[in-house]
Amino acid sequence: MSTSPDPQLSADHNERTENEIELKDVVGLSQGQIVRRRFFRHKGAMVGLGVLIAVVVLAFSSVGFGPVPGWWKYTGYETTLDVVNPGGAPTFTLPTWLGGEGFALGAHPFGQDELGRDLFARVMHGVQTSLMVMVIIGLVACGIGVLVGSLAGFFRGRLDTFLMRTTDLFITVPTIVIGAVIGKLAGQVSGVLFAVSLGIVLWTSLARLVRGEFLALREREFVDAARVAGASNRRIIFKHILPNAIGTIIVSTTLLMSSAILLETALSYLGFGIQPPTISLGQLIQMYQEAFSTRPWLFWWPGLFIVVIALTVNFIGDGLRDAFDPRQKRIPSERKMAKAREAAAKQQLAAQSEAGLA
After folding, report:
1. pTM (2 decimals)?
2. Which is more confidently placed, 19 or 140?
3. How does it sit in the membrane (predicted)?
């Protein structure tokens, strides 16, 4: 009489097989190599990284940056250009297999505004500004958040209480209100000052996460061993605890940068962000909002690049989170599982044969 296999035993066997496959993939690798291997295997992160690199290259090579000229013939500031298509419609045409007249970019592929300015060049300038603001906010907020969180979590006591109450004070004020005030004061000066000012107030969530990591890590055995060896507090923080919290810091900073570009877009749309003559994506949408029903292409391209940048940064952040988190497992394919089961069965038969011979 045959008996059906125990589901619990089958599940335990599959889990054991998965663990064996994962350990076999990372054997002999350092922690950094394991993280890179997991990140490069994350399909969403790789797609996001590729698209983001393409956007950065397109934005900075087309219209140039600073004294470096670009390959695009317009700057986006000319007001003496003739409007090619009626209403400044885009000049590019779709391929024939999509029902178009054949693929062609034309003189103004993204269209023109009411003054005849080339929209492609203006969007590329806006992408440059938004990317610059996003990176600066991420770096400034990361620096302040790591400093505050590490000091509060490591020393605790009165310093922890003071720093956390200060953090709570920043959290109680809505971010959009603080951003509007900062944008009104600093947005008219320069985009860099605007980004630095926003970074100074957007560090609170990162500080709390870093504090939690430091509170947990400071009680570990390797920290006690460093203290017994005579290591100073500075060395313990920078050489022992901070490297073990770097995963949380990188992932949180990446996601913070994604929300930062949306905040900059919202503030610029409301008129409290980057001010002319500097161009940003949110400012373009705000500038052309009255033409939404008659010339919607003026909104298509800035909105598309805002969504693309935010999504790609989020995908990269998800990939980094999965790469740094040891609890995240990559489920092996059925082919690998079958090979692992076959190898395990052969090893078991070989062991039984040796036992029978003995």
Report:
1. 0.78
2. 140
3. Multi-pass membrane protein
Residue 232 belongs to what H/E stretch?
none
Highest mean pLDDT, choosing among 75-79, 136-140, 284-288: 136-140
CB count in 10 Å sphere of residue 270: 14
For residues 131 and 125, give the distance between their C-alpha atoms in angstroms, rounded to a whole number: 10
3-state secondary structure 62-103: HCCECCECCCCCCCCCCCCCCCCCHHHCCCCECCHHHCCCCC
pLDDT digits (tens, 9 = 90+) for 73-85: 888 776 666 777 7
DSSP-assigned states of every residue in 27-45: TT--HHHHHHHHHHT-HHH
The superfamily (CATH) of domain 39-78+117-324 is: MetI-like (1.10.3720.10)
Q: Is the peptide bond before 277 cis (omega within 30 degrees of 0)?
A: yes
What is the token pair recorded at 7? 């589901």
Give CB contacts under 8 A, 24+ apart, made by 39-46: 39/319, 39/320, 39/322, 39/323, 41/330, 42/318, 42/319, 42/322, 42/323, 44/315, 44/318, 44/319, 45/315, 45/316, 45/318, 45/319, 45/320, 45/322, 46/319
What residue has token string 């930062």?
Answer: 260
Q: What is the pLDDT of residues 92-105, one digit of tens each?
A: 776 767 666 666 67
Alpha-carbon distance of 91 to 282, in angstroms, equals 24
Q: How confident is the model at residue 21 (pLDDT cuts 50, 70, 90)?
A: very low
More confident residue, 352 or 295: 295
How far apart are the C-alpha atoms of 196 and 136, rounded to whole Å? 6
Using only the alpha carbons of the chain, give its radius of gyration: 27
Q: Is 327 exposed, middle or buried (0-12, 13-18, 19+ CB in 10 A)?
A: exposed
Which DSSP state fits 167?
A: H
DSSP character for 323?
Answer: H
Within 8 A by CB and 6+ apart from 50, the residues are: none
Domain ranges of the chain: 39-78+117-324
Higher pLDDT, 4 or 324: 324
